[in-house]
Every structure is written in C-alpha cells, then in structure tokens.
Design goal:
With 65 residues, the protein is of the alpha+beta class. The chain is built from three helices and three strands; from the N terminus they run H-E-E-H-E-H.
C-alpha cells in the first residue's frame, strides 16, 4: 500500500497545537474591512477551534496524522 500524501491546502489552513487541538482562521476576513469596528477586526483576527469531532477525524486523516 502506498504512503498517504498530505493535502497541502489543508496544511496551509489548519494549525495543530501541541495537545492536538485544531485551529482555523475565521471566514470573511479578506477585504472591505474599513467599515468594521476595531473590536470586530480584533475578534475576527483570532483563530477559532474546530469543535466538530467528525471534521477533526477527517482532517487528521488528510494530514497524515
């Protein structure tokens, strides 16, 4: 059986912590942010935890973990 290749797009979008948690960037942060308040920009800048266990399982398989 051949080795599994990691999905490169997923490695760019998901960060794994030391304890195995998965973090992702928030959506809708591309452009047109001038009208947003400073607090909203600050909130959107943070990474968000992936809580869905099914998604985590699929992503780990895609990452080759």
């Amino acid at each position: 059986m051949p080795k599994l290749k990691t999905k490169k797009t997923l490695t760019k979008r998901i960060k794994l912590t030391k304890k195995g948690k998965m973090l992702r960037k928030q959506i809708d942060t591309g452009h047109l942010k001038r009208k947003w308040s400073t607090n909203k920009k600050h909130r959107k800048n943070k990474s968000k935890l992936i809580g869905n266990k099914g998604h985590q399982k699929k992503f780990k398989k895609m990452l080759g973990i």
